[in-house]
């Protein structure tokens, strides 16, 4: 049964550094702030546990995955934090061990209010970008997930999972089916984010007539990188409900399931699809 009363969700924005312990402490403070304000679902950003000095650092802190018992400090932190606050915690991304020992899976693990794993999504699309001095190639250290959508059911409805660069591939979001909320942990670069972040997020909300909650890295990092931030909640009409432009903090706002129904009733574009 779906509980249809409006409820709060929050996107945590971090400026993660090169030390896992310090990053987990920062994430813990932000989740506690969101929970204290009443958020039922809280999302952390991509790479919330580490923005390493080099891309290979995430391989150094990789953890095996165990759905039954947290198999490392990052998974333990997520499980304990969800249970402590009694929330749904979308755990940004965790570097999970892959078959190739030189690479990881860049994975979102979702924990329920009981601290148990409720869903897993391995990032499908791997970011590559080169312009001037800037160069990114995730395929060097990350193995792409199997190309299939991941959703989970919470008491307030169905939630779809995606990560950062996935945002540029609308077919993934369509394949999620009927979701009321899409969550996107991210670490968009300052260059690409200033140009594309908001317009892409709002497009995904409008074309799927659902809420989008995007939790981002936002600021100048210890490793010299600069990320765009602008963590936000967007409603099914494409309005920005709440935004955290820069630096550490949260973007918190209400989800009203009746607005999804009303939007789809007024403008039945999803029913008008012919392909
Ligand atoms: N950092 C990413 O994975 C994606 C990004 O910055 C972009 O798509 O732009």
From TrEMBL:
<dbReference type="InterPro" id="IPR001110">
    <property type="entry name" value="UPF0012_CS"/>
</dbReference>
<keyword id="KW-0378">Hydrolase</keyword>
<dbReference type="InterPro" id="IPR003010">
    <property type="entry name" value="C-N_Hydrolase"/>
</dbReference>
<comment type="similarity">
    <text>Belongs to the carbon-nitrogen hydrolase superfamily. NIT1/NIT2 family.</text>
</comment>
<dbReference type="GO" id="GO:0016811">
    <property type="term" value="F:hydrolase activity, acting on carbon-nitrogen (but not peptide) bonds, in linear amides"/>
</dbReference>
<feature type="domain" description="CN hydrolase">
    <location>
        <begin position="7"/>
        <end position="257"/>
    </location>
</feature>
<protein>
    <submittedName>
        <fullName>Carbon-nitrogen hydrolase family protein</fullName>
        <ecNumber>3.5.-.-</ecNumber>
    </submittedName>
</protein>
<dbReference type="InterPro" id="IPR036526">
    <property type="entry name" value="C-N_Hydrolase_sf"/>
</dbReference>
<dbReference type="InterPro" id="IPR045254">
    <property type="entry name" value="Nit1/2_C-N_Hydrolase"/>
</dbReference>
<dbReference type="Pfam" id="PF00795">
    <property type="entry name" value="CN_hydrolase"/>
</dbReference>
């Amino acid at each position: 049964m779906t509980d249809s009363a409006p409820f709060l969700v929050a996107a945590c924005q971090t400026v993660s550094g090169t030390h896992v312990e310090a990053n987990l402490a920062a994430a813990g403070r932000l989740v506690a702030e969101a929970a204290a304000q009443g958020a039922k679902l809280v999302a952390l950003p991509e790479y919330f546990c580490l923005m390493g000095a080099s891309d290979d650092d995430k391989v150094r802190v990789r953890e095996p995955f165990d759905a039954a018992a947290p198999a490392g400090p990052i998974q333990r932190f997520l499980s304990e934090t969800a249970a402590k606050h009694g929330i749904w915690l979308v755990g940004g991304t965790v570097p999970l061990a892959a078959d190739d020992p030189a690479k990881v899976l860049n994975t979102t693990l979702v924990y329920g209010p009981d601290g148990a794993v409720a869903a897993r999504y391995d990032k499908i699309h791997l970011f590559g970008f080169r312009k001037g001095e800037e160069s990114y190639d995730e395929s060097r250290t990350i193995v792409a997930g199997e190309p299939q959508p991941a959703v989970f059911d919470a008491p307030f409805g169905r939630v779809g999972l995606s990560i950062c660069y996935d945002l540029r591939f609308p077919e993934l979001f369509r394949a999620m089916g009927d979701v009321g909320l899409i969550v996107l942990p991210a670490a968009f670069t300052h260059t690409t984010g200033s140009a594309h972040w908001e317009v892409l997020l709002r497009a995904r909300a409008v074309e799927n007539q659902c809420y989008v909650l995007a939790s981002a890295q936002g600021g100048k990092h210890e490793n010299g990188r600069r990320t765009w931030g602008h963590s936000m909640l967007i409603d099914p009409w494409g309005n920005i409900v709440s935004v955290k432009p820069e630096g550490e903090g949260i973007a918190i706002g209400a989800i009203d399931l009746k607005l999804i129904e009303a939007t789809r009733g007024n403008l039945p574009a999803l029913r008008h699809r012919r392909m």
